């Protein structure tokens, strides 16, 4: 892959080249029904404290989400999502780190971009009516994710003949759609959508094939595996005990080609990546 950076609003993030480290995106859910943190950060003061801790821990991007996308989640009314997300965007826009907003609603995208968001992270791959028009004139980064069906039905017997091939073709079509709308490739990254309409075997296959995905699509890959059900299925641990499994998954994603990892546990993941990168640097120096 020859793309060396991601244009992320006010920031230009390294995504390739000699010595560039994988980026850590910290998850900041402001949802009372989040699957992984029990909604403990859904008040503004708690969310701001959490963001400050992420910054101290070395986060590269803060990803703000107001609507749960856990399997079976009901859609959130637009007004409620705006009420949850926008105060946090305004409060954090000068924090010194790129702000991402996790939404599939064009209206939320528009307001977030006006408020200063640097990235839009869309589980729906910018397929909603009007989404491309909203993001077209900005310079924010766009994360294009694959999802089979929708959060209400995605985990009801997901099926693929060739999961990696089908995810790549979906993402290729969406990249083409964004390019056709005049959006430059430097603003795009891709996410295979771990757990979004995939079985454990599908997720493991996609994890193994991240490098192929990055190479074929010539895009930096974002991998979100933190605390997900696949970690629970492998380890047998409940959500609150998946730290070790999540760090292992993040390192495996990086090893297989991910340039951004989306995580709940920023400090532990940053430390793990530092150790991994130190070893990788030694390996390169010895060649």
* Secondary-structure-derived class: alpha/beta
Q: Please, how many domains?
A: 1
Low-confidence stretches: 34-41
CATH topology: TIM Barrel
Report the sheet with the most strands, covering strand number, pairing sense and barrel closure: 8 strands, parallel
Q: Number of helical segments?
A: 10
How far the N terminus sits from the C terminus, by CA atoms, comes to: 21 Å
Shape: globular
List the helices and strands and how they pair.
Elements: E1 5-8, E2 11-14, E3 23-29, H1 44-57, E4 61-65, H2 78-92, E5 99-102, H3 106-115, E6 119-122, H4 131-136, E7 141-145, H5 163-180, E8 188-191, H6 200-208, H7 210-217, E9 222-224, H8 229-235, H9 243-255, E10 260-263, H10 266-285
Parallel strand pairs: 3-4, 3-10, 4-5, 5-6, 6-7, 7-8, 9-10
Antiparallel strand pairs: 1-2
Question: Can you describe this structure?
Answer:
With 287 residues, this protein is of the alpha/beta class. It is built from ten helices and ten strands. It has a single domain (5-285), classed as Dihydropteroate synthase-like (TIM Barrel), CATH 3.20.20.20. It has helices spanning 44-57, 78-92, 106-115, 131-136, 163-180, 200-208, 210-217, 229-235, 243-255, 266-285, and strands at residues 5-8, 11-14, 23-29, 61-65, 99-102, 119-122, 141-145, 188-191, 222-224, 260-263. Helix 3 (106-115) links the parallel strand 5 (99-102) and strand 6 (119-122).
